[in-house]
Specification:
single chain, Rossmann fold, elongated, binds S-adenosylmethionine, RGS_subdomain_2
Length: 349
Amino acid sequence: MSRTTGFEEFLKKPSCLKSFRRFLQKEFSQENLDFWLAVEMYKNCTFKKRDKLTVVIYKTYIHEDAPNQVNLDADAMNETLQRLLQPDDTTFDVAQKNIFELMERDPFRRYMADKTNCMKSNSFGAVGKLSAAKMEAHDWLKMWETNNIRFHQNSVHPHLVKHEKNVFSVNSRIYLPLCGKTLDMNYLSEKGHDVVGCEFSEIAILDFFKEHSIAFTCKTVNSSGHEFDIYEATDIKITIYKGDFFALGSQVTGKFDGIWDRGGFVAINPSQHGDYAKVIKDVLKPNGKYLLNSFRFPDPNWKGPPHSISQEDMENTFGSHFKITNLETLEPNKNFHNVEVSNFLLTFP
Ligand SMILES: C[S@@+](CC[C@H](N)C(=O)[O-])C[C@H]1O[C@@H](n2cnc3c(N)ncnc32)[C@H](O)[C@@H]1O
């Protein structure tokens, strides 16, 4: 791969990737970038996942009737078809190189001419696009950029495992507000649910798909002046909307049978509680169930996030629309500020 244009380095930067994808979208040639990314994932996936991914990539990008067929030259196509007879981690290498060179030769050059230099663009550029452009957006994005994500857990949340079966019906459509890259999404998907997350950090979303070798497609939708990138897994039911939770309503996502909220409600500013409740009310089906993992810190000087949520906060925020059931409150955690963790179940009365 040529190093002179900087295209290879460019593709490693999420903010550049995003900007380049938009450029390609306008030209209806985004499938080239998606294919290139899918092959990156393929090369790093486990042996166990490879068979499945081989078929997905072939059917999505290579086959003559593929919905997102890429424009391979004859040599690259023949070589790829040969390699598909005995797939290994190099199956799509020639095709990927072909598409890389195609993008580098043409759209990338025009893109760079257009943008002067994407590499130098402000890494918080996305913030300005968020409707509210709140300070919290800036702070969260910075945390992802500096990998300061101590809230992220490398295992499925034990309280989800404990309550999932009793709270959510089988094959539910479940929403995870402010989802980060939580493994709870994989868990719920493996349980047969249709999983939808919302997150405004592209780093979080791309990390999620990459870390689990999940192939995906991405498209952009506009709703009432807000833009959302929809990242949709191609072979399992996980979709993540990239954008501001407060601007994402049921007119875009549809309604949900269930909501699992770990690190969402407790993460937002207390001044946003009312707006948060409005979104929850909007996206939950009439018989839907909202499972909320919440914290109460006894120290009155505690400054979140996570913020301390009192029983009174719960009533004030959700009481007029929901029936609130406290499923459990755990013993205060002596190792962490005596925090009391509760799991609430909210339903419409
Ligand atoms: C405390 S983390 C929790 C992440 C995830 N639920 C978990 O359990 O790991 C909060 C996440 O919400 C995202 N976020 C904060 N405000 C948001 C908003 N208004 N819209 C979309 N995402 C937001 C942040 O980028 C961050 O990844």
